[in-house]
TrEMBL record:
<dbReference type="InterPro" id="IPR029787">
    <property type="entry name" value="Nucleotide_cyclase"/>
</dbReference>
<feature type="domain" description="EAL">
    <location>
        <begin position="211"/>
        <end position="461"/>
    </location>
</feature>
<dbReference type="InterPro" id="IPR052155">
    <property type="entry name" value="Biofilm_reg_signaling"/>
</dbReference>
<dbReference type="InterPro" id="IPR035919">
    <property type="entry name" value="EAL_sf"/>
</dbReference>
<protein>
    <submittedName>
        <fullName>Phytochrome-like protein cph2</fullName>
    </submittedName>
</protein>
<feature type="domain" description="GGDEF">
    <location>
        <begin position="69"/>
        <end position="202"/>
    </location>
</feature>
<dbReference type="InterPro" id="IPR001633">
    <property type="entry name" value="EAL_dom"/>
</dbReference>
<dbReference type="Pfam" id="PF00563">
    <property type="entry name" value="EAL"/>
</dbReference>
<dbReference type="Pfam" id="PF00990">
    <property type="entry name" value="GGDEF"/>
</dbReference>
<dbReference type="InterPro" id="IPR000160">
    <property type="entry name" value="GGDEF_dom"/>
</dbReference>
<dbReference type="InterPro" id="IPR043128">
    <property type="entry name" value="Rev_trsase/Diguanyl_cyclase"/>
</dbReference>
Length: 472
């Protein structure tokens, strides 16, 4: 045997060992590649696809879509999720997101994909969607599942979900178009209420563009101080004196003209602009009130969004200090809607405001489901009875009884009651007889400018009663 022949088995052994090691390296590389792919496609918190992965899958499905075939993109935004984070903390919020993710997975068919798109937003890509009823059925399953209470650590958390749907290729033949249109539909669902499903419609895009334009104009208006305040007086029914004026913000746009408050105030809340706008309103209202008599107060509406701002108390204190207005001449009005979330935070904040000497009133009392229970929890100085109860109280026994009941409740709690929406002398007599302490509305005065309110107050001091009713 030659020397070469004697080395052949050794060479083969070396080659086999090298090949085995190479196989192991390849396997390790494959595992690492799969791990990296998982990381790049998976949302770390929920284990769902992430936004990038959903967009990639959406592009692939659109590219391979057969003629006549459809796909549905369902876009979800959790309702009432932010209060969970604010009241229970971010760990609780994470558990809610994880539970929502599991319920989404439980609701889909085989082949559908679920992704967390960011924050509390999710999406489902429904493949081979045979008809609209298929996506509708899926959306309803999700709405039903997410309306069920989430229970952990003896806490019962109630959220919900708003759903927007875009159908490809009709509502878009690119991932960007489908995502945008599903998001527009979801935004419309949010506007229409909790647990709502909406399909994309072309006019939604036009509305969104108009909204974005108005948002830009609103930012400029705050910067350029295009707003002004109007004031509506409140009459004490015992002394028949004007004791307070409510500040109401107005926007007179250079090109658009008068923009209705029900347009720009909700927009300012959604965009976070309510903070600077609310501070401006409070400052100007206090500046105006300083020019009135010392016995006349000013009231300012506070948004639910402002009540989530932990700096609100300091802002109010600073503005009172800057303007020189005594704290007991400032009244802050909040609605029941403001109290429906962040209860502990809001209670603490209202108590801090009361310590400053500021007065607190509940606006639109009776329009919600838990007004009476809130009166036990919150430090109110006044109840404002919603105009829906006051209107017709002179002719309707039911309305009169409701007004009397609320006025009696106020008296038993030691708080004032203001009847809103008093338009006639007969209604004024009715609410006076029911036990209300104050009235507000057009019978006394419509909202008027700063100059006009000063004239009215001066005339009131000089000439006496602002309202003359034979029925008094």
């Amino acid at each position: 045997m030659s020397s070469v022949d004697s080395f052949e088995p050794q060479i083969e052994a070396v080659e086999i060992d090298a090949l085995q090691r190479l196989d192991r390296v390849v396997d390790q590389l494959r595992i690492e590649q799969q791990r990296l792919e998982t990381i790049t496609r998976e949302d770390a918190l929920t284990g769902l696809l992430n936004r990038t992965a959903m967009i990639n899958d959406l592009n692939a499905e659109i590219a391979s879509l057969a003629e006549g075939a459809e796909i549905a993109l369902l876009y979800f935004d959790l309702d009432n999720f932010k209060p969970v984070n604010d009241t229970l903390g971010h760990p609780a919020g994470d558990r809610v997101l994880q539970t929502a993710a599991r319920r989404l997975i439980e609701s889909i068919r085989d082949g559908d994909r679920v992704a967390r798109m960011g924050g509390d937003e999710f999406a489902i890509l429904q493949i081979n969607c045979p008809q609209p009823s298929s996506s509708r059925a899926l959306a309803k399953r999700v709405i039903q599942r997410l309306n069920e209470a989430i229970v952990f650590d003896e806490q019962h958390v109630h959220i919900g979900v708003s759903v927007g749907v875009a159908i490809g290729p009709f509502d878009g033949d690119t991932s960007n178009e489908l995502l945008k249109n599903a998001d527009l539909a979801m935004y419309r669902a949010k506007q229409d209420g909790r647990g709502v499903l909406r399909y994309f419609e072309t006019e939604m895009d036009a509305r969104m563009q108009a909204r974005r334009k108005l948002e830009n104009e609103l930012r400029l208006a705050i910067k350029n101080q295009e707003f002004e305040l109007h004031f509506q007086p409140v009459l004490d029914l015992t002394s028949e004196k004007i004791v307070l004026c409510e500040a109401l913000v107005r926007w007179n746009h250079p090109q658009l003209g008068r923009v209705a408050p029900d347009q720009f105030i909700p927009l300012s809340e959604k965009t976070g602009l309510i903070g600077p706008l609310g501070a401006w309103v409070l400052r100007r209202a206090c500046q105006e009130a300083v020019t009135w008599g010392d016995d006349i107060c000013v009231s300012v509406n506070v948004s639910p969004i402002q009540l989530r701002d932990r700096t609100l108390v300091q802002t109010v204190d600073n503005i009172l200090d800057e303007t020189g207005l005594k704290a007991n001449r400032l009244e802050l009005e909040i609605t029941e809607r403001s109290l429906m979330s962040n209860t502990d935070l809001t209670v603490g904040l209202l108590h801090q405001l009361r310590k400053l000497g500021v007065r607190i009133s509940m606006d639109d009392f009776g329009t919600g489901y838990s007004s009476i229970s809130y009166l036990r929890k919150f430090p109110f100085d006044k109840i404002k009875i919603d105009r829906s109860f006051v209107t017709g109280s002179d002719t309707s026994d039911d309305s009169a009884a409701l007004v009397k009941m609320i006025a009696s409740l106020g008296a038993s709690l030691g708080v004032k009651t203001t009847a809103e929406g008093v338009e006639t002398c007969a209604e004024m007599k009715s609410v006076r007889d029911a036990g209300c302490t104050e009235i507000q509305r057009y019978l006394l005065s419509r909202p008027i400018s700063s100059d006009s309110i000063r004239e009215l107050l001066h005339d009131r001091q000089t000439n006496g009663n602002a309202v003359t009713c034979e029925a008094n």
